[in-house]
Amino acid sequence: MITYVYPRFQLSALSGEVNLATDDLRMVLLTSSYTPDLDAHQHYDDLSGELTTADGYTAGGQALTGVSLAYDSATDTVWLDANTVVWDPSSLTARYAALVDAETGVAATSPLILLWDFEENKTSDNSEFRLDVHATGLLRVVANPA
User: What is the superkingdom listed in this entry's lineage (predicted)?
Assistant: First the structure.
């Protein structure tokens, strides 16, 4: 699996559109029909190919739980962490998962944060569709000299 941070997320974060600690963060599943454009895609309405409400999935994605931010002064690193995301039971096929800040409730103003590319279709057949969060979290930001 490859993780991409949408570059325009940084713009959204620095302009105050995003509060990772308190906003409604959602994991959205996308089919292989989605064509990622990391330079152009900034908001939820830029996504295509989202799974429809059926077979254990609800359009709009699943809210993250256990969201936390932590700072490590030894490495000058900020971590975003959350619990594993599970759709169970489900019969799903997805190629991508996008993390969206859905706090506004409006697709055109809901910033994209990151994209997981499974590199092939991931499926469940009346079973658990699981997105395990890495032990080091969903996202890390490391301070570099300006």
Answer: Bacteria
